[in-house]
Amino acid sequence: MTGIDREPPIPTEITLHQKSRRLELAYADGQRFLLDCEYLRVFTPSAEARGHGPGQETLQTGKRNVGIERIEPVGTYALRLVYSDGHDSGLYSWDMLYNLATHREALWAEYLNQIERQGLSRDIDTTSRPAGGRACGHHH
Length: 140
Description:
Elements: E1 13-17, E2 22-26, E3 32-36, H1 37-42, H2 47-50, E4 68-74, E5 78-83, E6 91-93, H3 94-102, H4 104-117
Antiparallel strand pairs: 1-2, 2-3, 4-5, 5-6
């Protein structure tokens, strides 16, 4: 089948816009995406938010004013985004970033629906955290 082992698109430019709290991704084919820090934080790939299997996800709330403090490359395959709320455990692969960029409207609409259905807020953090730290609950 075609497309299975295609290389994920890798941004040719990554620009953090601190004032507007947006990350801009530019690709060789001319595509450009502006992704809000809140959006990226809400969809963090970390185990803390995604869990270790289906049904273990924790809806991220209260992230409207979060910013990105630092962007760290991870090898040649991902970025670690360090957020102003202290979160830094999600590794955003090139594939994931491209998926978040190209499906932003649908993903964001579903997130807003979930927040509304559960009576939660983009301004108040109701995300439960494991006692004693920011880990995903596993102690090694």
